[in-house]
Amino acid sequence: DAHDDDDVSSGLIYTEGPLVRNEVVYMSDTVRAVIYRVSSSSSDSEQKQKNDSIGDGEKYYKFEIWATHSGGIDEDDPSSSQPSQYQNLAEPGSNGMATDTLDPKFVVINQHGLHRLIRCRLDDHAPGAPLSECPDLEVIANSF
Hints:
There is one protein chain. The protein has 144 residues and is mainly beta. Helices cover 3% and strands 40% of the residues. Strands 1, 2, 3, 4, 5 and 9 form a six-stranded mixed beta sheet that branches.
């Protein structure tokens, strides 16, 4: 698990779709099915002590696992209906994100795992929770 490493960034496998908004960078790991959040903060003793922060002594960057099951597939959830064609995918995560130009509070996310597009308020998502719990999640396109 990436939390056991010196920092979360050492657990990255294959990242795509960096999205910069509100001085934060979001990126998807398509293999681990995780969305990361990278934010910066000034150096202080609290940041220096955190295992998930890296920096150069003046500025620290905090890597967080922001959302899990980012492609919509949750093998641990028996109630989720997942057609067999989506199981055992090499890249079950999300692989692209963009700010919704019609409503900038929302982020449009390509869920590679379920081959669909969703939008939600990613900035308000609870850190580490499944993407399915993202506030105001809406399916835009259910198949592509």
